[in-house]
Every structure is written in C-alpha cells, then in structure tokens.
Write a structure and sequence with these properties.
single chain; 36% helix
C-alpha cells in the first residue's frame, strides 16, 4: 500500500475538485482513507506517470508529453511527484 505523506494529502485536498464535482474529503485523515480505498498511487516523476498509463492501457494520445499532468486523474504534488486517482 502506498504511503500518503502530508504533501500528497494536501495536494489531493487542494485539487480534488479537478476530478470530482464536489469534495470527497475535508481532512488529511479523510483524504488518506479515500486514497487507500481507491488504490491511488504516488509516482516519482512525469516519466513514471507515462509508464503507469501505458501499463494500464489508458489511451492518452490526445495529450502531449507536457499535458499528461493535465489529465483529470493526475494531481501534481508540487515536489516533482504525482498522485494518480482513478475514479
């Protein structure tokens, strides 16, 4: 199970409405529980995000290399890492 540190939890709390029409978590603990339940993953960099989507067979041809992080399920943590939440 991935470890969701405070930076990851805060990034999700701040950006969750990018993917969901309303907040699904209001605290770090709620965010941690939600991310664990949805099998969210934390990836070290943009290259790993591409590899993840390729392995999962998710077609992102319409997104350019710089735009992969604009996908709704990709959340920038702010320190170079990315959180992937599949709704």
């Amino acid at each position: 199970m991935p470890e969701f540190d405070d930076a990851v939890l805060d990034a999700f709390l701040e950006q969750q409405e990018k993917l969901f029409p309303e907040q699904v978590a209001g605290t770090r603990e709620e965010a941690r529980e939600f991310l664990e339940e949805t099998f969210a993953v934390v990836l070290a960099n943009k290259k790993e995000v591409w590899e993840y989507f390729n392995e999962e067979g998710i077609d992102l041809e319409e997104l350019g290399e710089d735009d992969i992080t604009s996908a709704d399920e990709v959340f920038a943590v702010g320190d170079g890492r990315f959180l992937i939440v599949e709704a």
